[in-house]
Specification:
Helix 8 runs parallel beside helix 10. 57% of the residues lie in helices and 0% in strands. It is globular and about 45 Å long. It is built from 14 helices and no strands. By secondary structure, it is mainly α. The two termini are 13 Å apart.
Length: 350
């Protein structure tokens, strides 16, 4: 797979086969994406914003590797997303400015992986523990693709197996690791985790992916957006962005469902506001920027500068981005979005 070759290139960079060098994100991101010439990707202002955001996350990480605050302290989803934020800048457990923080994230998640593969922390608040499991599994799969550690593979394999066996009859997943109900939001977390695991060389049954594709397709409304559950419902921006990314992650790269989904997302182009009444703001834009990155062309050229500039307005003096879940969550999401043009992580690559 081309994803694996890219992982090995990154691994070589951080282990000394290629020199690690700290250069401008703005310069390298723009050079790596010549097909998007004419689009300023990571501006110097955005680079400074990213640096402040990652520093905030590093400062807020506990010695055991956990992140999160308030009711979301020591939350596995927040930890996995923070790990992805650090890796989106080029750090891995093997090197880079935030190698220590990445290793701590890995240690925390592995320490909270049960014998049956479930990655969760008892008592930590969550919209649903399968969200945490999905984000954590995706992060660990990205790490495993770089390090190929046998002990990590063992627990990662169990985490993947748990996702496979808890898929419901319709092809989706819900809050608990049980094959009962399903919704589009939890489903996209699991399919991205499975895609990351497959990229890293772990087995994922084809029938699992096929069933997921069927579920996501059934979730799309006539307006191009996606309903929350296949029993019926209106479209909304956050879950519609997630729905398009679910299709991309499952290997559906073109077709009428992609075209309609992208058109629906574009109706929600960021307008540069410092505040928003929109619920699930960071969740929606985390997926929307991935959808536009995969689509490329005018979609990407219009979307990324708009969300980049809006996020710069929303950043606080501390370097954080505020969110109702917690600042660590908002900051992780924002820095992942802003660093997407770095093109380091295979799970986010086109």
């Amino acid at each position: 797979m081309r994803e694996l070759s890219r992982r090995r290139l990154l691994c070589a960079a951080v282990t000394g086969l290629l020199p690690w060098r700290r250069v401008s994100w703005a310069e390298e991101a723009n050079e790596r994406n010549p097909e998007r010439s004419g689009v300023t990707l990571i501006t110097p202002e955005a680079e400074a914003s990213i640096a402040r955001g990652l520093a905030f996350l590093a400062e807020r990480q506990r010695d055991d590797g956990s992140l999160g605050s308030g009711g979301y302290a020591r939350n596995t989803a927040v930890c996995g997303l923070a790990g992805l934020a650090f890796m989106s800048g080029g750090s891995t457990p093997l090197g880079g400015p935030y190698a220590l923080q990445v290793n701590r994230c890995v240690d925390f998640l592995l320490a909270n992986t049960s014998d049956d593969g479930f990655i969760t922390v008892s008592g930590s608040a969550s919209h649903g523990p399968m969200y945490g499991h999905g984000f954590a599994t995706m992060f660990l799969a990205e790490v495993y693709g770089v390090t190929m550690q046998p002990d990590l593979r063992e627990k990662l394999s169990k985490a993947v197996s748990l996702i496979v066996r808890t898929q419901n009859k319709d092809g989706g997943w819900r809050y608990q690791p049980q094959p009962n109900e399903a919704d589009i939001s939890v489903t996209v977390c699991q399919i991205m985790a499975l895609r990351a695991a497959r990229n890293a060389g772990l087995h994922v049954p084809t029938e699992t992916i096929d069933a997921c594709i069927n579920y996501v397709r059934r979730s799309q409304n006539g307006d191009g957006g996606f309903m929350y559950m296949i029993q019926g419902g209106t479209s909304a921006f956050p879950r519609s962005a997630a729905g398009v990314v679910a299709l991309y992650s499952a290997g559906v790269y073109e077709g009428p469902e992609i075209d309609r989904g992208l058109a629906y997302i574009m109706d929600n182009l960021p307008r540069g506001g410092a505040a928003s009444r929109e619920s699930h703001y960071f969740y929606g834009h985390y997926y929307a920027v991935q959808a536009m990155w995969r689509a490329g062309g005018d979609f990407w050229a219009k979307w990324f500068p708009a969300i980049r500039d809006e996020l710069l307005i929303r950043q606080q003096e501390s370097g954080a981005w505020a969110d109702a879940i917690c600042a660590e969550y908002g900051t992780s999401m924002a820095t992942i979005i802003l660093q997407l043009p770095n093109n380091f992580l295979p799970i986010f690559q086109r």
